[in-house]
Amino acid sequence: MTVLVPAWSPTTRLLLLLLLSSELSGTQDCSFQLSPISSDFAVKIRELSDYLLQDYPVTVASNLQDEELCGALWRLVLAQRWMERLKAVAGSKMRGLLERVNTEIHFVTKCAFQPPRSCLRFVQTNISRFLQETSEQLVALKPWITRRNFSRCLELQCQPDSSTLPPPQSSGALEATAPTAPPSPLLFLLLLPTGLLLLAAAWCPHWQRTRQRIPRAREQVPPVPSPQDLLLVEH
């Protein structure tokens, strides 16, 4: 029996390999044509909150960047992972309530989010506050979930570490390092006549005293004798 194999070109084979690798690694597109958030998600979260111990401890990230929409999506990614952990240790009744809430945020698994970065810091909170924040993130995303592409949100971003930021300079240091402005030419022209007048006023009395001293000095100098007078004196 002869098996016919299609004669694919190298370009066709390359395109098939790229398509297969993208399917295996998850799509980089993160958009939703239909809203995955139901209209009664708040009721489901409230029912779960009423059934749980209010002070049951969970953790939330404390240093996610304050992105307008990515931030809400990132917090739902972390919340969904907590839901899976809680389902693994809950009883049958609790597991059913957790699954109803998890269904509301399970849509985040459709996007190929990168693993959480090591820079994330987590703080402890109680389950009541955790569920309240989850409800707030769904409220923030619901109007935009079908109108935005979230592909740029696939990597959770941390806030810059304060230890790596340059220390703020004080106002005194800024004033000390600020360059002094050169004097304005207009100011020099305005002050030039005043300077000349002051110089003239200081020079005039000196000049007048000098003129008065010159004649007096001339009067005190004896007249120079002529040669004839010197001859008469010798004889």
TrEMBL record:
It is a single-pass type I membrane protein. One of its GO terms (molecular function) is receptor tyrosine kinase binding. It is found in: Cell membrane; Secreted. Keywords: Cell membrane, Cytokine, Disulfide bond, Glycoprotein, Membrane, Secreted, Signal, Transmembrane, Transmembrane helix. The chain crosses the membrane at residues 186-204. Residues 1-26 form the signal peptide. This is Fms-related tyrosine kinase 3 ligand. GO terms for cellular component: cell surface; extracellular space; plasma membrane. One of its GO terms (biological process) is embryonic hemopoiesis. Pfam families: Flt3_lig. The keyword Cell membrane applies. It comes from Saimiri boliviensis boliviensis. The keyword Membrane applies.
